[in-house]
Amino acid sequence: MKIAIIDDSATDREVLVTLLHMFFEKINLPVDIIEFSCAESFLTTLEPDTYNLCFMDIFMDGMNGMEASQIVHKAAPDCMVIFLSSSDQYIGEGYRVRALRYLLKPITAEKIQEFLPECVERVVLSQRRLSVSIGRKERQIPFSKILYALSSSKTEIHLLNNVFTVSSRQTFAQITAPLLEDYRFISCGRGVVVNMAHTLKIDKDCFIMENGDRVPISRRRLSDVTDRFIDFQFEYLI
């Protein structure tokens, strides 16, 4: 797991590094921690898959943590952001920019333990891949990149900016079975499986996806699907 700490206080960085190493040693998971004293230097290293998690101080000279986190969300959407601050005045703003947590300093081992297991779980989930045949090649598509799967004449895997047609002789049910074992995915009709993590809302009888696509929900399943989506939002997104 690779973690970035962006904080202009060397003392606060040192405390956090110590606590993180203690946590990851207990669960026997390798961790690579990189320290930055300002947001600008951190952003020069940022690529889509560079970091799994970053701890971002809000009050820093130059670019503040709120501004930097907006860039992180666009450039590396899979990187989780934990805000650090000595004041709680920006808690609401922190969640608006989709930070995973907002931690008040001083950081303690107890505070770390409250959310780091969830972060580790998310990293494990991000590594899951769906094996499918596309053309004549076997492809590994990250679960986290899939918006939805649709059965037409063949199975289509819809990503944010692309659609892959699966050439396997497997049925739609066989192809999507691994997805439905993951809590993020739900069958909302015959031949339709949706990743709720990429769903903005339900509008009448459709999921509205992040790319603007409208994915139909069967009337028979609408009530159950709506309940599961609400539960998912409260449990994992809000």
From TrEMBL:
One Pfam family cited in the UniProt record for this chain: Response_reg
Domain Response regulatory: 2-120
Residue(s) carrying 4-aspartylphosphate: 57
CDD domains: REC
Keywords carried by this UniProt record: DNA-binding, Phosphoprotein
Family matches, as Gene3D superfamilies: 3.40.50.2300, LytTr DNA-binding domain (2.40.50.1020)
InterPro entries in UniProt: CheY-like_superfamily (IPR011006), LytR-like (IPR046947), LytTR_DNA-bd_dom (IPR007492), Sig_transdc_resp-reg_receiver (IPR001789)
GO MF annotation terms: DNA binding
SMART domains assigned: LytTR, REC
Role according to the record: May play the central regulatory role in sporulation. It may be an element of the effector pathway responsible for the activation of sporulation genes in response to nutritional stress. Spo0A may act in concert with spo0H (a sigma factor) to control the expression of some genes that are critical to the sporulation process.
UniProt protein name: Stage 0 sporulation protein A homolog
